[in-house]
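Q: May I have one protein plus its fold?
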Amino acid sequence: MSYLSVILALSFVLVAVVISVRENLELEKDLMIGTFRAFVQLIAIGFILKFIFEMEKWPYIVVMIGFMVLAAARNAEKRGQGVKNVFPMLLLAISMGEILTMGMMLGLKIIPFQAQYVIPISGMIIGNGMVASALTLNRVKAEIESRREEILVLLGLGATARQASSSTLQASLKSALIPTVDSLKTVGIVQLPGMMTGLIIGGVSPLVAVKYQLVVMLMITSTVSITAMIVAYFAYSKFFTERHQLI
């Protein structure tokens, strides 16, 4: 693909800008800033990855993944405004999702410990962990707000914070997992995922691309489950005192 093709692809953004102007969404500025940032960030990361791939040394891989985790936690933190110590909680959840899932990938020898495999796949793990964390955190806050009276009644009857929040935790975990479950049900029928499409465009056999995509989809299921569970179980406790009183 030529650079001219990439520049011409800006016309797709213009479609969104026109819709924003027509419907008074006031998103034109954000669309333009987002597009500019995407160009700068992707070009920069392209050079960084080229350097890391050529060096092929594990400290560079670890630093890169650490930076990605920090950025993901910081971005998901925006969903947790008003929740105490939300950043360390998100950092832990996303880190554990990456460590456990990537540990299984390497331990089961599904992929080798090489930068060209570990970093892109870590990006998928961390990105999905970030989305799952944000969804879970947002849903926990909303559920506790909407179920406040129910929780207070349960606490008044002698329930612990954990018991009073059981419905909240179930709803929050379901909310985070449903998009992944729906993707598993419709993959190959409604959509051809990005990794599979990229491999096919790159000339790889569709059957080989399918194997890689299956591994990625199953990997993402694990990541989302781990991060959502950690966030849900840490987040709900932030709304209660040590004496199991709702804040």
Notes: Residues 59-239 form one domain. The two ends are 56 Å apart (CA to CA). The chain has a mean pLDDT of 87. The CA atoms of residues 76 and 131 lie 7 Å apart.
